[in-house]
Amino acid sequence: MSAAPRLKIGLSACFQHADPNRPLFTGKTLQYVEQSIAHWLMSAGAMVVMVPCPTGETARGDVTLAHYAEWLDGVVMHGGADVWPGNYGEEPLREEWIGDRVRDLYDLAVVKAFAEVRKPIFGVCRGLQLINVAFGGALYQDIEFQHPGAQQHRNATTYDQHFHDIQIVPGSRLAQLYPDVPRARVNSIHHQGIKRVAPDFEVEALSEPDGVPEAIRLKPAPGRGYIAATQWHPEFHKLGSDTLDDTAILEDFLAACTKAKAQGPLEHHGAPFRDRATRLLRRALRKDRQKAGE
After folding, report:
1. Residues sharing a CB contact under 8 Å with residue 145, sequence separation 6 or more, in sequence order
2. Residue 286's CB: how many other CB atoms inside 10 A?
3. Closest Cα to residue 166, out of 182, 146, 189?
4. CA-CA distance, 39 to 251, in Å (whole number)?
5. Torsion-angle region of 230 (φ positive above 0: left; ψ -120 to 50: alpha; else: beta)
């Protein structure tokens, strides 16, 4: 008896934009993944595929994000740069909080492409923030600056060794995954966070003591797929540490991918959004190239 086919899980790309002063790949746009999150998915036997941005000055052929959404069994939205405040109707309060508008357009298009065919989506850190914005939520541009009484959520020196506690919301799916863990310790590597939760999403965990949302999930309903996210990086958990064990979160996401795969492909809807997103992305990439001096 042959083994069941392995799940194929997409991983959104991180960007390093064209830089004429970079000694390697001078003037070229780089797309990459962070090793630990790929290894996290692979630890459960999944095949990991980076989903590259299909547009840009070197683009050829007709492969789209919709093709990746049809082929893959689910997608994980990567951590990384800030989300541009314009995506939730605000002006950047500081220049350093402007984010990455090109990557935002790409990530928003990835989320829409997978959501349209109800393939499971899981977000990590920036991924949580991007998902929240994609479905109508808003962010603190800087938690310590905008949230009275906020604790420090990011320490540039300690980075992934900076931690705080969370409270898991009773009755949530996350509480079901961790039935005897009302509170837990997680890493904290972000300065932005959820200010307004997107409609149809529920909060599954809150930071203590300041109450910033740390995990969200799309409320189950007919015709909806699996979308969940954590503000912390579950892939950074180390065996034997006192931080929340990532196993249940990973298994829950991959189980949803297995279920979606068994249900078979769905037809796409909402093509006008994808067409618009592609036009906006191409326009932003042209501006990015001009800024880099190409």
Report:
1. 93
2. 14
3. 182
4. 14
5. beta
Structure confidence by residue, pLDDT tens digits, 199-221? 999 999 999 999 999 999 999 99
Asked if 29 contacts 16 with a C-beta cutoff of 8 angstroms, the reply is yes
- Count CB-CB contacts under 10 A for residue 24: 6
CA distance 283 to 279: 6
Q: Distance (Å, rounded) from C-alpha 212 to C-alpha 233? A: 16
In what side-by-side order are the strands of the sheet with 121-124?
A: 47-51, 8-12, 74-77, 121-124, 227-230, 213-218, 201-208, 163-168, 183-187
CA angle 101, 273, 292 (to 5 degrees): 25
Cis omega (within 30 of 0) on the bond before 234?
no
CA angle 155, 156, 160 (to 5 degrees): 70
Contact in structure between 158 and 164 (CB atoms under 8 Å):
no
Residue pLDDT, tens place only, 98-137:
999 999 999 999 999 999 999 999 999 999 999 999 999 9
Spatial CA neighbour of 110 closest among 119, 100, 99, 98: 119
Distance CA 6, CA 2 (A): 12
Where do the H-state alpha helices sit in 178-270? Answer: 247-263
| Sign (positive or negative) of CA dihedral 224, 36, 150, 206 | positive
Question: Is residue 12 within 8 Å of residue 283, measured between CB atoms?
Answer: no
Backbone angles phi, psi at 122, to 5 degrees: -125, 135
Kindly give the pairing relationship between strand 213-218 and strand 227-230: antiparallel
Alpha-helical regions (H) of 61-214: 65-71, 101-116, 126-134, 143-146, 173-177
As a whole number of angstroms, the distance between CA 193 and CA 200 comes to 18
Residue-level pLDDT at 159: 85
